[in-house]
Write a structure and sequence with these properties.
The complex is a heterodimer of chains A (about 110) and B (about 270).
Chain A: H1 3-21, E1 26-27, H2 28-38, H3 47-59, E2 63-69, E3 77-83, H4 85-109
Helix pairs in contact in A: 1-3, 1-4
Chain B: H1 3-15, H2 20-38, H3 44-54, H4 57-68, H5 73-89, E1 91-95, E2 99-100, E3 103-104, E4 106-111, E5 116-119, E6 122-125, E7 131-185, E8 188-216, E9 219-226, E10 229-232, H6 245-255, H7 261-268
Parallel strand pairs in B: 4-7, 7-8, 8-9, 9-10
Antiparallel strand pairs in B: 1-4, 2-3, 5-6
Helix pairs in contact in B: 1-2, 1-4, 2-3
Classes of the chains: A alpha+beta (about 110), B alpha/beta (about 270).
Chain lengths: ~110, ~270
Amino acid sequence: MNEMSRQLKKGILEILLLQLLQDEAAYGYELMQRLSERSGDYFTMKEGTLYPILYRLEDSGYIQSVWEETRDRRGAQRKYYSMTEQGRDYLDHARDELNQLITATKKIMGGEMR
Amino acid sequence: MNRQIEEYVDQVISYVDAGEKMKRRLREDLRAHILDAAGAGASDDQIGAAIARMGDPKEMAVELSDLLYDDKREVVRELIEVREELRHADRYEYKSKRTLFGLPLVHIHMSRGYRYGWGHGRVRMGRRPAVAKGIIAIGDVAVGGVAIGGLAAGGLCFGGVALGLMCFGGIGLALLIGLGGIAISGGLAMGGLAIGQFAFGGCALAAQVAVGGYAKAVVAIGGQAVGEYTLSTGDNSLNATMVSVEQARALIHSAYPNLWRPLVDVLVWPFMFH
C-alpha cells in the first residue's frame, strides 16, 4: 500500500468500523474480515491499525466491549465490540461530514472524479 | 496459553512504548486475535501460520505506536532524551564541586573512542570530542591550569598537541617551555625539532642559543653548528664527549654574560657527564 493510499484510508477507517458495528456486535478479527469482504479487498486492515482505532472509539464512549466465552476455541475468551448510543450519534455526524467532504472534493475534481 | 502466541505477543509489546494498562489491553486483544485468525480448534501449525500472516513484530509495533499516540510530541521528546543518554553513555565525566575562579577544581571528561563514518558524502566524526575545562582538566580536549589530553591547552599542558605556557607533548607550542617531538617555544624548546629563543634537540633552531645535532643560533653548539659563536663536533651528531661543560658554558657566557644560570645549566646539561 503506498503512502497516499494509506493516509486516505486511515482517516476513514474509524467511520467504517462504526458502520460495521451499527447493526451487530463483532470481535476484532471479524471486523477485519468484514471490512475486507465488503470492500472487495480494498480495505485490508492490519491488526496494528485495527486495535488502536477500536481503543480510541471505546475510550471516547462510541463503542463498548465485553469478553465472552467461546465453545470452539478451547474455552478462550473473545472480546465483542458493540456500538453505544453516543456512537450512533457520532456516526450520524461523521456520515454528514464524510458526505460534505466527498461533495466538496467532487466539486473541485469535477469530471475527473467518478 | 500457546507458547508461540505468548512469544509473539511478548515481542510486539516489548517494542511498544505504552503504559502497563495499555500493554495489558493489547496483550489480551492480540492473544484472542491470533486464536481467531488461526481458526476453530487451532493447531500449532495453524497458529504459526496466523502469526506469520500478522508479520514482523517490530512492524506491528510501529503501526500500533503510530496510531496509539495522537500527540506524537511526547514520543519525540522521549526519543530525544534517549539519544541524549546514549550520547553520554560512552563518556566518563567527573566534575569536582569545589571551584576556583569559576572553574571546577578538577574536571575529567573523556570519551571511550571516536566513531567515524560516511555522512552526506564526506567523512564525519560520529560525535564531538569530550571537552574538559577546569583548574585541573583531563579530557579528549583539556583546557585549564593543568591540562592533560589529546589536545591540551592552558598553563601546564601534557598532550598529543599541547599549547600553553609550559607544554609537553607530541607537538608542543609553548610560551615559556616546550618539550616534544616538535617543540616550538617563545622561551626554551626541547625536542626532536626544537624551535625557540633557546633550543635543545635533534635539530635545534634558536634565536639565541641552540644545542643539538644540528644547531643554528647566535650561539650554536652541536654536530653541525651554525652561528656567530659556535662549537662544532663536525659529525652531524651531538657527541657530548667532544665538548666539555666548561667550554659550552664559556661560549654561552661570551655572547650572553647575564643569562640566567639555571637556563645555562639546562643547555649545557648534555656535557656534564663526561
